[in-house]
Design a protein that fits this description.
The complex is a heterotrimer of chains A (219), B (406) and C (164).
Chain A: E1 9-13, H1 20-23, H2 27-30, E2 33-37, H3 43-50, H4 64-72, H5 75-86, E3 91-95, H6 99-106, E4 130-134, H7 139-151, E5 157-161, H8 163-167, E6 190-192, H9 199-214
Parallel strand pairs in A: 3-4, 4-5, 5-6
Antiparallel strand pairs in A: 1-2
Chain B: H1 3-12, E1 19-23, E2 34-40, E3 43-50, H2 58-61, H3 71-74, H4 82-97, H5 103-131, H6 135-156, E4 165-166, E5 169-170, H7 180-194, H8 207-230, H9 233-239, H10 247-253, H11 257-261, H12 269-272, H13 293-317, E6 337-344, E7 349-356, E8 364-368, H14 375-382, H15 390-396, H16 401-405
Antiparallel strand pairs in B: 1-2, 2-3, 4-5, 6-7, 7-8
Chain C: H1 2-16, E1 21-27, E2 31-36, H2 41-50, E3 56-64, E4 75-83, E5 95-102, E6 107-109, H3 119-129, E7 132-134
Parallel strand pairs in C: 2-5, 6-7
Antiparallel strand pairs in C: 1-2, 3-4, 4-5
Classes of the chains: A alpha/beta (219), B mainly alpha (406), C alpha/beta (164).
Chain lengths: 219, 406, 164
């Protein structure tokens, strides 16, 4: 569970050991870490002392979780896990309207995304990593997009393709039935502009997603 | 339901409990379209189509935009075939304004419309193949389509939704030269696919000769498609004698386009109600009598051949001259009245009915698209069939959900 | 030649159903329209189907006439675009018939029993403009979302939210 940055806490460790992992079995360590919410007048000192950029994680139930975090974000393990994830992204594409035709054109032999591990298997949602939403999302379809996003297993990413998915596009002012941008319902990672975007642009968006995954922190 | 449909179900109905499920909006086999299916065993007892997942309100939007700024959003319903959606709009506005467009504009409009028709049919076959399990057809058709889209890009500037047509002509002229890199890539692709080098006269940089070279290449590839896909067991086993639409039913249910021609009715708007340069060109209309899914696919296949012939004749016969009417202001005023115009898109005929009030915006614009008229046929054909027959029937009708919902 | 045959058909209908016809709009090569009274639309349709072989309907349109400058008023006009495939000479033309209804209470009898191809088109006119067709087997919403609670969107008093 991650707290937001306005609700700072500080950790006062009572007892730690050299290898915190072995102490995790003992009952003492469960009460070893006490969290308290910092009152407003002490906020600035706490920010200077601990820094705001450090992740403030609420750890209930001992040091195990914290130590696993440190081990996972060791640079070698993090690189291997992230490389495995980015090198074989399988999309589940939600073919809405115009942009779906450009998505079909990206898979041809002139542009060839399969050399990067992007296999457009028209399979189920339970086996996909990336949800690629192309085109206009309706008011009738918006509820179903949220249901589809909830059905995908973690880790998952979202690419919003086309001007209509970013902000409403050509249908922004005069249409009574179009959702003005996908930000309102799902968290988006990469925006690909264009109406419709050329295949080279989709390619660049897809490579940007790979960079983002490679540099991200593991939860 | 009609008596014949009730009889079909009585033969196959096992009498067990019925199950209703939703062939949902996110399905790799349908696109954004939902069907509510009731089955008993493996036989479909009732099917209820549920369109409306891509309804964007085009008809209401058209009342807020002027006559010329209406064109970009009116070509978005059938994206691949943008020419087919906008030509009848321009024809109707020209009928209201009582003008006649110059000769060169008619030929240019015809060439771009036929290029869009070929691109749309190739995409239809690629999706038809992939959803029956034949992935090679998808990859071959989509790769070949790139060269047709390059031609369209050289003339108009965009790959498909180009907004090239205006009431009064076209936006700009065809070029005279083709860039060198494109000719080199075409030569490499030709030698890989056909197996021999192209002849020297096909490799020039002149625009008309390049267009003739590409059309010749597509005709050679059509023979390859026939051997690989239309004559293979994967396709034939699933498609023969499935979804038979008889002639009387086709007329009674009012289906347009390819479906009508595959059931024995010879009807095409380019011949019956001609417009643009079609009166001066010679071509035929393919017609078949069986009415099953195989016949619909073969009619589409033969139409690609006819379109290539049209492009070749139009390029050779195109005269010199102006390509749009002289004064062309941005805001035009159309006189009062109402008019009706139609043209043939890739899937059937598109009809526009426009009421004008004398101002700079239309009063009422109504667009009747061919995909919406196919819904009664979809309902009629699937009742009594098996669940595994839904993809061949659905894709052979060439139903495009965005066009039906507008 | 086909437009002459259409002209003869319109004259024939005018003779047979004299008082039921309200108005006629005919411009050669542009539009051919007959406006009939609300109560007699089914008979005129049956006559056109049986005698003159108009065998399918290409579409149904609804127009809200309240803001038209000339000839407007609180009316809704419903048009049927008819076509013929059996008759070789009539292949090229479209004949339009229309009725004019009050905007307060727009009801008319459905033509489903004569031409089954109007099923989905009449549902769309009901959805977009609020016209009720008596005798339609399943008159429900087809294109708008399930929770639409506003007035029908193609009426002129409905303003699109983006433009105030």
């Amino acid at each position: 569970m991650v707290l937001d940055q306005f609700n700072l806490t500080r950790r006062i460790p009572k007892k730690t050991g050299v290898f915190g992992y072995t102490l995790a079995y003992s009952k003492d360590i469960i009460e070893a870490i006490v969290e308290e919410v910092i009152p407003d007048d002490e906020r600035e000192e706490a920010i200077k002392e601990y820094g705001l950029g450090r992740p403030m994680k609420l750890i209930e139930g001992g040091d195990t979780h914290y130590v696993l975090q440190v081990i996972k974000n060791n640079s070698l393990i993090r690189y291997l896990v992230n490389w495995g994830r980015m090198a074989s992204l399988w999309p589940a594409h939600l073919t809405t309207a115009c942009c779906s035709v450009e998505f079909g054109a990206v898979s041809c032999s002139r542009y060839d995304p399969e050399r990067f591990g992007w296999i457009p298997a028209t399979g189920t949602l339970r086996q996909s990593d990336v949800l690629l939403i192309e085109g206009t999302v309706n008011m009738k379809m918006a509820q179903r997009v949220r249901m589809i996003y909830d059905q995908m297993p973690n880790p998952k990413w979202v690419i919003a393709m086309g001007a209509c998915a970013i902000s409403g596009g050509l249908y922004a002012k005069d249409s009574y039935n179009v959702l003005q941008g996908l930000n309102d319902i799902v968290p988006v990672d990469v925006y690909v502009p264009g109406c419709p975007p050329r295949p080279e642009t989709i390619f660049q968006g897809f490579l940007l997603l790979r960079d983002k995954i490679l540099k991200s922190r593991l939860d | 339901m009609v008596l014949e449909e009730k009889k079909k179900i009585e033969v196959y109905d096992t009498g067990g409990p019925r199950l209703t499920f939703s062939y949902g909006p996110q399905h790799p086999g349908t696109g954004h379209f939902r069907m509510i299916v009731t089955v008993s065993g493996d036989t479909i007892v009732d099917l209820e189509p549920d369109p409306g997942f891509v309804h964007r309100g085009e008809e209401k939007m058209a009342e807020y935009k002027t006559w010329i700024t209406n064109i970009p959003h009116l070509e978005r319903p059938a994206i691949l075939d943008a020419a087919g959606m906008v030509i009848p709009y321009c024809l109707t506005v020209e009928k209201l304004m009582d003008v006649e467009i110059p000769e060169r504009a008619k030929y240019l409009r015809t060439i771009v419309a036929e290029l869009d028709r070929i691109a749309s049919h190739l995409y239809w076959f690629s999706l038809y193949g992939v959803f029956l399990g034949h992935t090679t057809m998808f990859l071959w058709c989509v790769s070949d389509r790139e060269f047709i889209l390059d031609l369209s890009q050289l003339i108009t500037g965009q790959r498909f939704t180009h907004a090239y047509y205006v009431p009064g002509g076209v936006r700009n002229d065809a070029p005279k030269q083709v860039p060198k890199e494109l000719v080199k890539e075409f030569k490499y692709y030709y030698s890989r696919m056909i197996g021999r080098e192209p002849s020297q006269e096909e490799l020039s940089e002149d625009f008309s000769k390049y267009v003739l070279a590409v059309t010749h290449f597509m005709e050679l590839r059509l023979d390859h498609y026939y051997e690989m896909f239309f004559n293979s067991e994967i396709f034939l086993e699933r498609v023969r004698n499935i979804g038979v639409l008889k002639r009387e039913d086709a007329i009674r249910l009012g289906v347009p386009g390819t479906t009508l021609r595959a059931s024995g009715v010879k009807y095409d708007t380019r011949v019956n109600d001609p417009y643009d340069a079609y009166p001066f060109l010679k071509f035929e209309i393919p017609v078949r009598n069986e009415g099953d899914c195989y016949a619909r696919a073969m009619v589409g296949y033969q139409e690609i051949g006819e379109s290539l012939k049209i492009i070749r004749q139009a390029i050779e016969q195109m005269p010199e001259g102006p390509f749009k009417l002289k004064q062309h202001p941005v805001v035009i005023k159309v006189p009062k009245g109402e008019a009706l115009g139609r043209a043939e898109a890739a899937r059937g005929e598109v009809i526009y009915y426009i009421v004008s009030d004398g101002t700079d915006k239309p009063y009422r614009l109504r667009m009747i698209t061919p995909s919406f008229r196919l819904l009664p046929a979809l309902k009629h054909l699937t009742i009594g069939a098996r669940i595994a027959d839904i993809p061949p029937i659905y894709w052979s009708l060439n139903y495009w959900p965005v066009e039906a919902d507008r | 030649m086909t437009w002459e045959k259409l002209r003869k058909i319109i004259d024939d209908v005018k003779e047979k159903f004299g008082e039921d016809l309200v108005r006629e709009v005919y411009v050669e090569r542009k539009i051919a329209k007959i406006v009939v009274k609300k109560e007699s639309i089914v008979e005129v349709a049956r006559y056109l189907r049986d005698t003159h072989r108009f065998d399918h309907v290409k579409g149904v349109t609804g127009v809200d006439l309240s803001r038209l400058r000339e000839g407007g008023g609180p009316y809704i006009e419903v048009l049927y675009h008819l076509g013929s495939l059996e008759d070789q000479e009539l292949n090229d033309v479209i004949l339009n018939i229309s009725v004019i209804l009050d905007i307060e209470n727009p009801t008319v009898s459905s033509l489903y029993s004569i031409w089954p191809s109007v099923e989905f088109h009449e549902r769309e006119v009901y959805d977009m403009l609020g016209v009720i067709f008596n005798g339609h087997p399943k008159l429900e919403r087809i294109l708008l979302p399930e929770y639409w609670m506003d007035i029908p969107p193609l009426r002129k008093e409905y303003k699109v939210p983006g433009r105030g």
